[in-house]
Design a protein that fits this description.
The complex is a heterodimer of chains A (about 250) and B (about 290). Among the domains of chain A are: about 90 residues, Alpha-Beta Plaits (2-Layer Sandwich); about 80 residues, Alpha-Beta Plaits, CATH 3.30.70. Chain A has 8 helices and 7 strands; from the N terminus they run αβααββαβαββαβαα. The termini of chain A are far apart. Chain A is elongated and about 100 Å long. Chain A has about 250 residues and is an alpha+beta fold. Helix content of chain A is about 30%, strand content about 10%. In chain A, a hairpin with a 7-residue loop joins β5 and β6. The model of chain A has no long low-confidence stretch (mean pLDDT about 85). In chain B, the strands form 2 sheets. Chain B has a 3-stranded antiparallel beta sheet with strand order 1-2-3. In chain B, strands 4-5 form a two-stranded antiparallel ribbon. In chain B, α3 packs across α7 and α6 packs parallel to α9. The radius of gyration of chain B is 20 Å and the shape is globular. Chains A and B meet through α1, α2 and α3 of A and β1, β2, α3, α4 and α7 of B.
């Protein structure tokens, strides 16, 4: 018994030390993991550089080297620091501060060593950094019937990503309103519209796509599209009743 | 012990000049500042020699270097990095396999200056309080960070990793990261002697594993001269590595073989009997 005692003491010490080490490191790793999970929610104003397809995958692929930030010629991109709302060390930009200038050679994507920014993006018009949305109809000058048009004019994909849709102005009853309308099919999310909005607080904002874009239920069919596809009505010709004053268009 | 070390230093300091007693330290600080300077020359003076930071960089627009530990986390998170990052990591791995992984800790890592300052303060102020966790904690933490990367599919550790954060912060802006670094300083100063670099840092553990077969090693080749002044133990960031080489006799190698040794050379600096020198791992010459 006597010659076992010191050995078991050493073993006990070893086990206690190991338990402390394993427990402590588990706690630290768990803390880091939980913090990471909580901090991975990207704030709405922070936009990712071009070539990011999916935020979750980006957080695994970006090694926080800042090479994209270095090669951005307009100082658009920033690296987030600890305490910022964006995951520590990852690149982002704020449209209202400095929007993306949509360089044709996309130097930020070329600089990325890991593929966090996908090099298969070679046409900057195909970038989807976010989606512009005219979030406030009450203050947008064009919605008030004025001709501001600035967001439309500065759009690098003018007439495709933002168009001005003319509708009757019910207030004056004799003018048109030209409403800036964003088309998600073409909007790159560069942020120039938000940057240029003349209001003290922008009425048009670029938001991450999952915040800005709605989705129709999968089973919805648009009758006018189906009609086009089928080359005629698929439920038979409908009786069109005449509308007073618009008799011509009913034919 | 620190007063004992100081007096023994004072007694024989006339024999060796201040420069001789600090040459490795000065070389090391020169290396750390030089590397940081290369990264800062771009943003500060427009002199773009190196772009990026320690996790990945591009030197003179041709040489990619990538931190293998961070890249490993990315791979475990389910990503397939581009060849640029893989080549960069391969170069770094090859370099540290050759010279010793923890050379990174002593000669490159910016946190080293912080924890060295804390250790110096601890010696100077005679602080004995606190207790360091087990040395193996860093290995477990290394395992933990790799599991965290796989479990969250993201670089979980890189959210808080003080090593990459300090270097990135010095170049791109530190934010609240400064508080984290202050925390490490205070932890090392008040709670645990050499607590961060010597016991907790998973990055150091990773590079330690890389350095198992490294060529350059410290040799206690004149160990018979040792007068047990303990200066080397007091100054060494990993004091457990010295004993086997220094106190062994005859058949036992005078080479400090533990890959925990950071090759900082402080033992060569402080030893007034010139017991230590830089050698290669196969050099078995010793005076006992």
């Amino acid at each position: 018994m006597a010659d076992i005692a010191p050995a078991s003491g050493a073993r006990r010490r070893f086990l206690a030390n190991m338990a402390g080490a394993v427990g402590g490191s588990c706690l630290l790793a768990l803390g880091a993991g939980l913090y990471a999970r909580q901090a991975s929610a990207l704030p709405a104003q922070a936009l990712r550089p071009p070539g990011v397809k999916d935020e979750a995958a980006f957080l695994g692929a970006c090694i926080r080297c800042g090479l994209c930030v270095r090669d951005c010629p307009y100082n658009t991109l920033k690296l987030s620091a600890l305490g910022d709302a964006v995951a520590t060390g990852t690149p982002y930009f704020t449209a209202r501060d400095v929007p993306c200038e949509m360089c044709e050679d996309i130097p930020c994507v070329k600089a990325c060593p890991t593929g966090a920014l996908d090099k298969s993006l070679t046409d900057i018009n195909q970038a989807r950094m976010g989606l512009a949305a005219l979030v406030d109809h009450e203050t947008c000058l064009n919605f008030l019937g004025l001709r501001c048009d600035v967001c439309y004019r500065v759009c690098p994909v003018i007439d495709k990503a933002i168009s001005l849709d003319s509708i009757h102005n019910p207030r004056s009853d004799r003018h048109a309103m030209l409403l800036p309308t964003v088309h998600s099919e073409h909007c790159t999310g560069c942020g120039k519209c938000e940057k240029s909005c003349v209001l003290p607080v922008a009425a048009i904002k670029v938001l991450p796509k999952q915040l800005a874009q709605g989705r129709l239920p999968d089973h919805y069919r648009k009758g006018w599209e189906e009609k086009e596809k089928a080359g005629g009505s698929i439920i038979g010709e409908q009786i069109r009743l005449p509308v007073r004053g618009l008799e011509e268009s009913a034919k | 012990m620190s007063t004992l070390a100081n007096t023994s230093c004072a007694n024989t300091s006339l024999a060796r000049s201040w420069l001789m007693r600090h040459r490795w330290l000065l070389l090391r600080r020169l290396s750390q500042l030089g590397i940081l300077g290369l990264f800062l020359a771009g943003p500060w003076f427009g002199l773009w020699i190196v772009k990026g930071n320690l996790t990945s960089s591009l030197t003179l627009d041709v040489l990619p270097l990538t931190d293998p530990y961070v890249l490993l986390q990315s791979v475990l998170a389910g990503q397939t990095p581009y060849s640029t990052a893989l080549i960069g990591a391969a170069i770094v791995v090859a370099f540290y396999l050759l010279v010793g992984g923890r050379v990174f800790c002593a000669w490159v890592c910016p946190v080293n200056a912080v924890t060295d300052a804390a250790a110096w303060g601890r010696r100077r102020l005679g602080i004995k309080s606190g207790r360091a966790p087990d040395v193996r904690t860093r290995t477990w933490l290394l395992v933990g960070t790799l599991i965290a990367a796989a479990a969250t599919s993201s670089l979980a550790w890189e959210w808080v990793n003080p090593v990459s954060m300090l270097h990135r912060g010095l170049i791109f802006g530190l934010g609240a990261g400064g508080l984290l670094i202050l925390g490490i300083f205070l932890y090392d100063l008040l709670v645990a002697s050499r607590g961060w670099c010597g016991h907790l840092c998973p990055m150091g553990a990773f590079y330690g594993l890389l350095g198992r077969l490294a060529l350059p090693r410290i040799s206690a080749n004149k160990r018979s001269q040792c007068d047990d002044c303990m200066d080397c133990f007091a100054v060494c960031p990993e004091p457990q590595v010295i004993r086997p080489a220094l106190k062994g006799h005859g058949e036992v190698t005078p080479i400090i073989r533990s890959s925990d040794c950071t090759l900082c050379g402080r033992c060569i600096d402080v030893c007034n009997k010139d017991v230590f020198r830089l050698a290669v791992r196969y050099d078995q010459r010793s005076d006992t």
